[in-house]
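Hi,

Apologies if this is the wrong queue. I'm a grad student, and the batch job for phosphoenolpyruvate carboxykinase (ATP) from Tetragenococcus halophilus subsp. halophilus produced an output file that my downstream script rejects. I'm not sure whether the problem is my script or the file. Here is the sequence I used:
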Amino acid sequence: MATIGRFNRSEVKKENQLFSRFKTLVETAFYGNNVTSVTNLQKAYHLATQASGTVVTDLPVKHTSDLGLPEETKMLIFNDGKIVGRTAAARVVIGHPGVDSDYYQGILREALYQSREQNFYTADVVVGLDEKFMVKSHLMLPEGFENNLYSYLLNFQIANKQWQERYENSVSYEENDIYLFANPNWHHPDFPFGLALFDPEHNVAAVLGLRYFGELKKGTLTLAWATAHRNNYVACHGGIKQYQLPEGNKYTMAAFGLSGSGKSTITLTQHGGKYKVDVLHDDAFIIDRDTGSTIALEPAYFDKVQDYPLTHNTVDYYLTMQNVGATKDKEGKTVPVLQDIRNGNGRTVKSRYVTKNRVDALDEKLDAVFWIMKDDSLPPVVKVEDPILAAVFGLTLATKRSTAENVVGDVDLNQLVIEPYADPFRAYPLAEDYRNFRDLFNKNKTACYILNTDAFHGKDITPQVTLSSIEKIITGEAIFEQFGPIKEMSYLPIEGYELDLNDKKYMKDIHARLQSRLDFILKENNTNEGYDALPEETAEMMRHVISEL
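Support response: The file is valid. Your script probably expects a header line. Output copied below for reference.
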């Protein structure tokens, strides 16, 4: 069996490193007499339809039998309040510098004590869709949030009979099962934005005072990614797909970017049927550090609805919706109002069947990694030749925040920020991700590209420009030119997005952006007591590139 949820009595002792105070605090709550187990999707769906505030639409769910749902299942809508995105300011990781473990133990003990006044549900899922990597996850959530429970069981793989059998035959890891306790009703004056508390070493978390479903999804993935990282995998917040090309050739690519960057569009597009495309996932996967093979962590997709009107064919595969509107059509049927008309960051859990050719694992190693950026100093497509520089550009991935995040404080959403490897959910030192990606580019000979999906010289870069460029790359038709004096970089010439290295303003801008990357690397050496300090080669490489200009 993959991870450990049960122990021999002789193993239940202080010396067992799988136990900690946080693990014991959280797990104990699951066995209270105020807790009811939900073991199948039929019951979860029924509970969600009966929850106060649920909108049961008149749109039928497709593939109900395959999903384990009642034939009459309809798409459900459930909306939160003011907050409709993830709150990064609420995240606290035990073991990070400056985090007082004893203090947070007290906060958690009191939160668990107060929860005894409520009735809760628990449910189990499998995270990781191949026998080489599977982790059991247990969720505990109070009455009133049945829609989040139902969405959780749809987003991950419910531990039904078939998957339980696969899980029991999967590779064993000396790791705890995941235990995630959530209480959106919790309030504390010292935590006005809520608290998402993680003990990643022991695979436990408490999500307190936060209603948004994405907190449960990304909280679970935080722990699953950390588990994979400890066991010879590269944890990836990105999308991955494989193209079936003529003469039996294949091309496997991964795209890394924050929500709103185009990651899902790039991953899920079928290119008008030009190629057979197998999709692994658009958000969460892992790479075997030795073989380069990949595994998806989730069967479903939790995606934005802002780009899809009600008549779009992807809507046929929605299962649940969060923070969207509802109205009546001409036939008097209740239907959703999409495209973020109600508020920003409307979301849906879509079934795996939205993609024609969905796979859960790929044995072939990655051919290319694409870093998706919102950096208008870069042409639409840049190729990076050097493995250290390729990893450094991922390390200094420049992008913009989106409505997917509940940004605390006065923050300009148009301001460029650096989010290493597009992964704000990392629970271990950043240098470890850097080394993993550097080795991926070096040992596995994985190619590296940068996609700017923002604008260049003030001209928006459209999805069509991006997608047609990817087509040229995978078919070998792309002809790159050297990026001026920078020998380690080249760019794809595209009409309307010409690179003018004689433009003094442009050269000043690109120099400033490269310098900001170097500044970020140097800052990490001192921030948080150097927890995310980086190897000297990262700064040396960026200094070298700047000097070449």
